[in-house]
Every structure is written in structure tokens, then in C-alpha cells.
Amino acid sequence: MEFITYEQDGFVGVITINRPKALNALNSQVLDELNDTLDAVDLETTRALILTGAGDKSFVAGADIGEMSTLTKAEGEAFGKKGNDVFRKLETFPLPVIAAVNGFALGGGCEISMSCDIRICSENAIFGQPEVGLGITPGFGGTQRLARLVGAGMAKQMIYTARNIKADEAYRIGLVNAVYPAEELLDQAKKMAAGIAANAPIAVRNCKKAINDGLQVDMDQAIVIEEKLFGDCFETEDQKAGMGNFLEKDKEKKLKVVPFQNK
Ligand code: CAA
Predict the structure, then answer these.
(1) Cβ atoms 68, 25 nearer than 8 A
(2) Disulfide-capable partner of 104 in 7, 58, 68, 251 (CB 3.0 to 4.6 Å)?
């Protein structure tokens, strides 16, 4: 692959978008390679993913403006679908995905971070949806996911004004869970991923599915989704071992709570 690197570190897979000369902008090739990378993740040995960008300046500076500049209406729609398909694959991926946002997260960069389960960022991170300044709408899910994450009023303000926000404001409005000095960001993401990976993997996957699927339907349907995924856990070794350890009062083996805090 030319623009994506993938490294496995224990139970954790780290996906790096690696096109620093263009501030990791997403062209068709990057999107295709990201799609193939996700397809190749070994679900037997991996329990969490981290998504980040190469270099110390940019996570992802958006969809590739050069590539988009000559698109027709039909081609624009197809390019939107290409991005949406791979972002949706990330969002519904069976494993939790942490976005470690290490700089610019503009347009498609903000959008890809919002397709991840959890966002943490460096102090130099900048978020924004600058599309209307380029004569387009956000096209990789921004009009939908930003409103769901920070509320319609704040999302509309950010999108209509095309104003970028810094890390501290992204934290204040709930777009990111924590802000770290740049040099600590990846370690903090790995620490969080390791904390996730220490827990029962099928239970964690079922939690992701229950939250994601439940948010799409009304509460009566959502709790039925939860009941089924809760029930599934009782067929797992983890449930037998986890509850057995508790009942045997085996303090060593009890699941540990790993706190994570903003710095
Ligand atoms: N697409 C293509 N190339 C990009 C890019 C993008 N989104 N963002 C940056 N680059 C390229 C620049 O063209 C430049 O390339 P050259 O060295 O070959 O000239 C290189 O990356 C470095 O960029 P700058 O020289 O501009 O760096 P800077 O530090 O002066 O500015 C920046 C950084 C503020 C992020 C600026 O690059 C910028 O504004 N980028 C565009 C951000 C943007 O508008 N993103 C949204 C795109 S639209 C979108 O994403 C649609 C959608 O929803 C699907």
C-alpha cells in the first residue's frame, strides 16, 4: 500500500493514513486502501483499532480538493458514496476504533474521526467543516454525524460558518473525549486501547453493536437489541470465567477498571 500503514501491537491494530505531503488528504486511492486495510484486519487476534495520521501537523486535511475540482454532478455523488461506504465500514466495524487526531481534522478529516467510536486529540488539533467555503456541502457524513455528536445547533453553526475550532473548544462541545500534548497522544490512545483489550472481547463488540444499532431505532426496539446481545454473552467462556472469578473472590483475576482521564 502506498498511503496506509498498518501495524499490530499486541491486541491493538494501528492504522496510519500516510500521505503527509498532502496533509493526509483523502483521494480515491487512500479511500480504497483504507477499505482494503479494514478488510484485512485479523478479527481473531485484534481487539481494538487506532486511526491516526502520519506526521506532526495533520490528521487528515479533508477530501482531496484537486481530485474533486473537476467532478461532474454524477461523479461528485459517486465520490461521496465512496467515502461514505468506507466510513460506514469503519463505524460499523466489529471492533472499537479510537481516532487519535494529531493535527488538522478538516472536512473529510473531521468526518472520518466522527466515524470512529472515540476521539482523542493533540493540543494542536484543529477541527472544522470548511466545505461551504469551497462551494460544496460536507460529503462524507458530516451533515449527519456532527449533529448527532454535538447537537444540531452547534453542528449547524460550525457547518454554515465554516469556522474551524481548536482542541479546547472541540473538548468543550463534546467532539473529543480528551486533549493531550502531541508527543503523548499515540501512547494515550494505545493505553486506552489496551484498557479496552483487557476486557471480554465479545462483550465489548456486543456493546458497540448495541449502542450503534440502538441509536437508529426507538427505545422499545433498542432495549430488545440490548437484550439479545446481553443474552448472547451467556454463551461465551468470558462470561463463565469473569463471573466465576468474581464468585470465587479471586481478586487477581477480577476484571480491572482502568480509569482514563483528561490530562
Ligand atoms: N486536498 C488536497 N491537497 C491538500 C488538502 C486537501 N484537502 N489539504 C492540504 N493539501 C495540500 C496542499 O495543496 C499542499 O500541497 P503542495 O505542497 O503540493 O502545494 C500541502 O497539502 C500542504 O498544504 P498547505 O501548503 O496549504 O499547508 P498550510 O499549513 O499552509 O495549510 C491547511 C494547512 C489550513 C490545512 C490548508 O492546507 C487547507 O486549508 N487545506 C484544505 C482544508 C479543507 O478545506 N478541507 C476540506 C476539503 S473538502 C471535503 O473534505 C469534502 C468532504 O466532506 C468529502
Answers:
(1) no
(2) 58
Angstrom distances, CA of residue 234 to CA of 202, 206, 209, 212, 227 = 11, 12, 16, 21, 11
**Residue 232: partners with Cβ closer than 8 Å, 6 or more residues away:** 202, 206
Strands (E) in the chain, as ranges, are 4-9, 12-17, 48-53, 58-60, 97-101, 104-106, 118-122, 126-128, 165-166, 178-180
Task: State pLDDT tens for residues 95-131.
Answer: 999 999 999 999 999 999 999 999 999 999 999 999 9
Any ligand 1 atom below 6 A from CB of 23: yes
- pLDDT for 174 beyond 50: yes
Find the catalytic residue in 2, 91, 111, 184: 111
DSSP string, 108-164: HHHHHHHTSSEEEEETT-EEE--GGGGTS---SSHHHHHHHHH-HHHHHHHHHHT--
31 lines ligand 1 (CB under 6 A): no
Which residue has the CA at smallest separation from atom 37 of ligand 1?
Answer: 61
d(CA 37, CA 41): 6
> CA 97, CA 92: separation in Å to the nearest integer?
10
